[in-house]
Design a protein that fits this description.
Elements (H helix, E strand, L loop, with lengths): L1 E11 L8 E4 L4 E6 L6 H13 L8 H4 L8 E9 L2 E11 L3 E9 L5 E6 L1 H11 L3 H7 L1 E2 L10 H8 L2 H84 L5 H119 L16 H152 L5 H41 L4 H25 L3 E10 L5 E11 L12 H23 L1 E3 L1 E5 L7 H17 L5 E6 L4 H4 L4 E4 L1
Parallel strand pairs: 1-11, 3-13, 3-14, 8-12, 12-13
Antiparallel strand pairs: 1-2, 1-4, 4-5, 5-6, 6-7, 9-10
Helix pairs in contact: 6-8, 6-9, 7-8, 10-11, 10-12
C-alpha cells in the first residue's frame, strides 16, 4: 500500500492571511476550525489544492488568492511524505524573488533537498503521479460546501478514482492500431489486385511466346533449305579451284626453293658489294683528303719559313735605315746645337747693347732733367755750381750719348741682325736636311715594305698555285676512282636488278598460286561454315526460358497472394480483437464492469454509514443504470435513496438536512473506495461546514461517525472539520480547536 502523509501547510500573503500561518496535520487528531463567514477557514484548507495543483476547489488561482493588502509575495508550502520519503511542494505568486513559479523538492538520504520539478508544467504532472489527480483530491480528501453538486455524475468521479483515463488511453491506442490493421488490409488488397493483373499479363505473354515458337519452326525449315543450296555452291567452287591448282605450270617446289635461295644470296652479296663500293669511294676520298692536307700543311710550312726569312731581311734593312737616321739626326742635332748656341750669344749681345742704350737714354734724360732746373745754383748730385760751361759740356755729353745710341742701334740692326739671319738660315738648312732625312727614311721604309709585300705575295701566289695543283690532282685521282667504282657499281646494280626481277617473277607466280590456295581455303572454310550453320540450325531449339521464368513469376505471385490472404486472415482477426478491446475499453466495457464490481462494496459501505447516521431510516444504494421519464435506461451511476419512515424514494422531497446526512455517508464511502481501489492510504480528511445544516442529533451522530473513523483508521488520520459557529458538544469531543 502506498502511504501518503501530509505533515503541514504553510501560507503567507495568502487570501486574508498576511502573516505566516502554519497548519500542522498531526496523527490521530480531530481538528475543529471555526470562525465567522469570510474569515478564511475554507481558504486555509484549500491551500493544499492550490499549492499542489495551482487551483482551489472553487477554481481560484493566484490572482484570486494573493492578499489584497500586500498584493504580492504570495507563498504556499506543503510538507508531505510518500512511503517515508519527504517532499516539500512550494508555490509563489507575484513574489519579489521567485515571481510566479512552483517547486517540488525531495530530501535525499544525506539530508539535502533535491529539486525534482520546476514550474506548473512539471510540478502538476509530478504531484499527480506522486499523490493523486486534482479531481480525486477534491472528491475524496476535501469535501467543500455544497458537495451535492459534485454527485450529479458519480460515474465521472468513479472514473477519476479508478483511473479510467488509463482505459481511454488504451482505447485510443487500440483504435490507432485498428486503423493500422485496416490500412494493412487495404495495402494487401492493392498488392493482390496488382499480382492478379500481373498474372493475367504473364499468361498473355506465354500465349504470345507459344505463337512465336510455331513461327520459329517454319523459319527453321526455310533456313535449312537455303543453307543446303549455299553449301552445294561452295562445294562446286572448291572443286574448280582444286583443278586449277593441279593445272598450274610451276617447277618442282624443292628446286624452286633452291633457286630462290640462290637468288637471295646473290642479291645480298651484290648489295653488300654495292655497300663496299660506296665505302671504297669514301675511303679513297678520305685517303686523298688526308694526303692533300699533308701536302698543303707542307706548303704552309714552306710559306711560313719564307715569310720568316722575309721578315728577318726586312728587320735588318729597317735597322740599317734606323741607324742611318739616328746618325744623321745626331749630326743635325749637333749642328742645330751650335746654331742655337751662336743665336744665344747674339741674343745676349743684343741684350747688352739694349741695356747700354737704355743706360745712355737714362743718362741723357738725367742730364736733360738737370738742364731744365733753371735758377738752380748747384748740381743736386755733386752739389757744384752749374755754369754755362757745364751746361755746354752736358749738352755735348748728351749729344755724344745720343750718337753712341745711334751707333749701337745700327750695330744691332746691321751686325747682330745679320748674324741672327745667318744663324736662322743655317737652322732652316738643318731642319730641311732633317726633313729630307725623314722623307728619305719614309721612302726607304715604303720601298722595303713594298719589297716585303711583293715577296709575301710571291710566296702566297706560289702556295696558291701549289694548293690548286694538289686539289686538282686529288680531284683527278678521286674522279678516276669514282668512275672505276661507279662502273663496278653499275654492273652490281644490273646484277641485283636481274636477280630481283627473277625473284619477283617467282614471287608473282607464287602469289598467284597462293591466291588460288587462299580462294580454295576460303571456299573450304565457307563450306565448313555452311556445314556448321546447317548443323547449328538443325540443333537450334526455340528458347522457352522466358516461359519458365514467367511460370516462376506466376508461381511467386500466386504464393504471394496466398501469403497475403493468410496475412489478411491474421489481420482481420487482429481487427476483430481490436473491435473487442475497443468495446472492452469503452465506458460501457471494463470501466463499467469495474463500477459494477464496486457497487456491492459501495452499497455495503454506504449502508453501514447510513445505519449509524440515521439509525436505519435511510436506505441508500448505488446503481449504474438510470431510467428516464420515457422508460429508457441510460449508462450513468445514480444514487437511490429510500426514506423508510415517509416512504419516499425521491431526494428532491427530502430536506436539506436529510440530503446532507446522505451526502456525508456518500463522502465517507468514496474515501473508502479510493483507499480500497488504488491501495493508497491518506492521512487527512477535510470537511467544510458539513454540520451546519444538521440538527443537534444528526450533528452528534456525524461527529460520532467521524470519531469512529478516526479511531479505526491505521494511517494516522487527521480530520479537519470547519464550522462558522462554535458548538459546545463538538468542542468537548475534538482534540484541537482552531479559532480564526
Amino acid at each position: 500500500m502506498k502511504v501518503i502523509k501530509f505533515k503541514r501547510v504553510i501560507v503567507e500573503n495568502y487570501g486574508p492571511f498576511v502573516d505566516r500561518i502554519e497548519l500542522e496535520f498531526k496523527p490521530n487528531r480531530f481538528i475543529f476550525i471555526f470562525g465567522p463567514n469570510g474569515i478564511g477557514k475554507t481558504t486555509l484548507l484549500n491551500a493544499l489544492a492550490y499549492c499542489n495543483y495551482g487551483v482551489t476547489s472553487k477554481k481560484e488561482t493566484g490572482d484570486d488568492l494573493v492578499n489584497n493588502i500586500t498584493e504580492k509575495n504570495l507563498y504556499v508550502r506543503t510538507d508531505l511524505t510518500v512511503d517515508g520519503i519527504e517532499y516539500k511542494s512550494e508555490r509563489y505568486h507575484k513574489h519579489s524573488q521567485h515571481r510566479n513559479t512552483a517547486l517540488i523538492h525531495r530530501k535525499k538520504s544525506d539530508g539535502e533537498w533535491e529539486l525534482v520539478a520546476r514550474g506548473s508544467k512539471e510540478t502538476i504532472p509530478y504531484i499527480t503521479k506522486l499523490v493523486c489527480s486534482k479531481e480525486v483530491f477534491n472528491n475524496t480528501l476535501f469535501f467543500a460546501q455544497g458537495i451535492n453538486v459534485l454527485f450529479e455524475d458519480l460515474k465521472d468521479i468513479f472514473g477519476k478514482i479508478m483511473n479510467f483515463a488509463l482505459y481511454t488511453n488504451y482505447r485510443d491506442e487500440v483504435k490507432n492500431r485498428k486503423k493500422v490493421f485496416e490500412k494493412e488490409i487495404e495495402d494487401i488488397n492493392v498488392t493482390v489486385n496488382k499480382n492478379i493483373a500481373l498474372i493475367e499479363n504473364n499468361s498473355e505473354r506465354i500465349e504470345y511466346i507459344e505463337n512465336k515458337e510455331i513461327e520459329f519452326d517454319k523459319l527453321k525449315l526455310a533456313s535449312l533449305d537455303k543453307l543446303n543450296r549455299e553449301f552445294k555452291i561452295f562445294e562446286t567452287q572448291e572443286m574448280d579451284l582444286t583443278q586449277k591448282i593441279k593445272d598450274f605450270d610451276f617447277e618442282d617446289p624443292d628446286k624452286l626453293k633452291v633457286t630462290i635461295q640462290t637468288l637471295n644470296e646473290s642479291i645480298i652479296k651484290n648489295i653488300q658489294n654495292h655497300k663496299n663500293t660506296n665505302q671504297k669511294i669514301t675511303d679513297i676520298k678520305k685517303d686523298l683528303d688526308q694526303k692533300k692536307q699533308i701536302k698543303i700543311a707542307e706548303l704552309m710550312t714552306e710559306k711560313s719559313t719564307a715569310l720568316i726569312k722575309i721578315n728577318d731581311k726586312y728587320k735588318v734593312i729597317e735597322k740599317e735605315i734606323q741607324d742611318l737616321f739616328n746618325e744623321s739626326g745626331r749630326v743635325l742635332a749637333e749642328k742645330n746645337g751650335e746654331i742655337q748656341k751662336s743665336l744665344n750669344i747674339l741674343k745676349i749681345e743684343g741684350t747688352n747693347f739694349k741695356s747700354k742704350i737704355t743706360n745712355l737714354k737714362f743718362n741723357i734724360q738725367e742730364i736733360k732733367t738737370n738742364q731744365s732746373l733753371e735758377g738752380t745754383a748747384s748740381c743736386p748730385t755733386c752739389e757744384q755750381d752749374i755754369t754755362e760751361e757745364v751746361i755746354q759740356k752736358i749738352d755735348l755729353k748728351v749729344k755724344n750719348y745720343e750718337n753712341e745710341i745711334i751707333e749701337h742701334k745700327q750695330y744691332i740692326l746691321l751686325t747682330i741682325n745679320e748674324q741672327l739671319k745667318e744663324q736662322r738660315k743655317k737652322e732652316s738648312e738643318v731642319k730641311d736636311e732633317l726633313n729630307q732625312l725623314i722623307q728619305e727614311k719614309t721612302e726607304k721604309v715604303k720601298e722595303i715594305e713594298q719589297y716585303k709585300n711583293d715577296e709575301i705575295k710571291k710566296c702566297e701566289d706560289k702556295l696558291t698555285v701549289l694548293v690548286t695543283k694538289v686539289n686538282n690532282l686529288a680531284k683527278q685521282q678521286y674522279d678516276q676512282a669514282v668512275i672505276e667504282i661507279k662502273s663496278q657499281e653499275k654492273e652490281l646494280k644490273q646484277s641485283i636488278d636481274n636477280d630481283t626481277k627473277k625473284l619477283n617473277d617467282i614471287e608473282t607466280k607464287m602469289g598467284e598460286l597462293q591466291d588460288l590456295y587462299e580462294e580454295m581455303k576460303e571456299a573450304t572454310n565457307d563450306k565448313k561454315l555452311k556445314v556448321e550453320e546447317i548443323k547449328k540450325e538443325k540443333e537450334s531449339i526455340f528458347d522457352k526460358s522466358e516461359i519458365e521464368l514467367i511460370d516462376e513469376q506466376i508461381d511467386k505471385l500466386n504464393y504471394e497472394i496466398e501469403s497475403l490472404t493468410l496475412q489478411t486472415y491474421s489481420i482481420e482477426y487482429k481487427i476483430k480483437m481490436a473491435k473487442f478491446w475497443l468495446d472492452a475499453f469503452s465506458p460501457s466495457g471494463i470501466p463499467n464492469k469495474l463500477i459494477d464490481d464496486s457497487i456491492p462494496f459501495m452499497n455495503l459501505t454506504v449502508q453501514t454509514y447510513m445505519d449509524q447516521l440515521s439509525h436505519g431510516r435511510y436506505l441508500v444504494s448505488f446503481d449504474t443504470m438510470t431510467q428516464t421519464k420515457k422508460g429508457e435506461f441510460r449508462d450513468k451511476v445514480s444514487v437511490n435513496v429510500v426514506d423508510t419512515i415517509n416512504k419516499t424514494m425521491q431526494r428532491k422531497s427530502l430536506s436539506g438536512g436529510q440530503n446532507r446526512i446522505i451526502d456525508i455517508g456518500i463522502i465517507l464511502t468514496l474515501r473508502d473506495l479510493q483507499n480500497n481501489i488504488n491501495n493508497i492510504s491518506f492521512n487527512i480528511l477535510m470537511l467544510d461546514e458539513i454540520l451546519d445544516s444538521l440538527d443537534q442529533d444528526n450533528r452528534k451522530a456525524t461527529v460520532d461517525i467521524l470519531r469512529q473513523v478516526l479511531n479505526s483508521d491505521e494511517s494516522d488520520l487527521c480530520i479537519n472539520l470547519i464550522s462558522h459557529t462554535q458548538l459546545d458538544f463538538i468542542e468537548r469531543d475534538v482534540d484541537v480547536i482552531l479559532n480564526l
